[in-house]
Amino acid sequence: LGGPLGAAQASKATDYMELPQPVRYEELQKECLMSLRPETFEGMRFDFTKPLNQSFSLSHSLQMGHAEMPTQNPNQIVKVPVSSYEFGANLIGAKGMMIGRMLTDGRMSGRVKYDLNEALSVKVQAQLAEEKQYSQTMFDLDVKGLDWNGQLKMGNNQFVGLNYFQSVTNNLALGGEAFWLGSQRKSGVGFAMRHQGDPGIATCQVATTGLLSATYHHKVSDKVYLASELMWNWNAREASAAFGYDYILRQCRLRGRVDSQGVITAYLEERLNVGVNFVLSAELDHYRKDYRFGFGMTVGME
Fold first, then answer.
1. How many CB atoms lie within 10 A of CB 225?
2. Which of 12, 81, 40 has its CA nearest to residue 263?
C-alpha cells in the first residue's frame, strides 16, 4: 500500500528483532500498586534523612501509635499502644547500594545490590529478629537480555524460585514463575501477561496456588491516574475488587482506594518546603468498626 495509510500501517508493524525490554517480573503491577497500596499508618510518624555526602546518608524514623493484636474472633479488634525508633544507613553508588536498618525491638535488616555488568546483577536481603520464624535471608540473581529478563531466587527454609518475562510484541509481554519451598514440601507455578499501551496498562496473573489477579492502570492526564484490581481465590471461593486513584498536584499528592469490603483509604503528602513534607493517613473499615488515622512529617531527601 502507498500513501499515508500504508506508511501508518508500516509504522505499527512489530519488528521482532527490536522488541523493548519488559519490566521485571516482580514489578509487573508497579503502576497500580502506587494507587492501590498507599503506605497508611496509625498514630504519629517522623522521618528524617541527613545526607553526609553524595553517596552516604543516615536516616531516623520515630513512630508512636497502636498495633492490632490477633484474636480468635476476626471481627473483634484489640489494640495496644506501641512505639518504635529506627536507625538507618544508606550507601548508594553508580553500580550498587547498601541499605541497613536497626529497630529498638532488636530487629535488624539489610539489603545489598551490585551490578556486575549491564546484564547481570546480584541482590542479598536479610532480616534478623529474636523470634526464629521472623529471621530470613534471600539471594537474587537478575539476568537481563535485549527483550527479556529473568531472576533466580534462593532463601532460607529451602526456598528456590525462578521467573522469566519476555516481550512478544511492542506492547505485550508474557512470562511465568515457579517456586519450591522445601521446608513445607510446597511448590507452585504461575503465569503472567502485561499489555502496555497508551493510555492504559493491563496485567493478569494466575497461579496454581489458587490465586487470580487482574489489574488495569489508566492515565487520565499527566497529573491524574486511576487503577482497578480484581482478585479471586478459587480454593477459598473468595473474590475482592478495589478501585484506586492518584492525583499529583503542584504542592501535594493524594492517593487512595475503595474496595469491595467497604474499606476506604486515603493518603495525602503535602509539600511545605524543599525537602519537608507533611503526611496525613486515614483508613476507614465500617464493617469491622476499625478506624485508623495518622499524621507525620518527612524531612530530608528520600
1. 21
2. 40
- pTM value is 0.87
Residue type, 226: L
Residues 6+ apart with CB under 8 A from 271: 251, 252, 277
Contact call for residues 252 and 268 (beta carbons, < 8 A): yes
Q: 215-235, pLDDT tens digit by residue?
A: 999 999 999 999 999 999 999
* Cα–Cα distance for residue pair 98/94, rounded to 1 Å: 12
Nine cell digits for residue 13: 508493524
pLDDT in tens, 245-259: 999 998 999 999 999
- The C-alpha atoms of residue 291 and residue 281 are separated, in whole angstroms, by 11
- Which helix (H) or strand (E) segment holds residue 4: the answer is helix 3-12
Residues 4, 12: Cα–Cα separation, whole Å? 13
Handedness of CA 22, 25, 30, 33 (dihedral sign): positive
> Contact 70/56 with Cβ under 8 angstroms?
no
Dig out the grid coordinates for 62 from the structure. Answer: 520515630
> Burial level of 259, CB count in 10 A (0-12/13-18/19+)?
middle
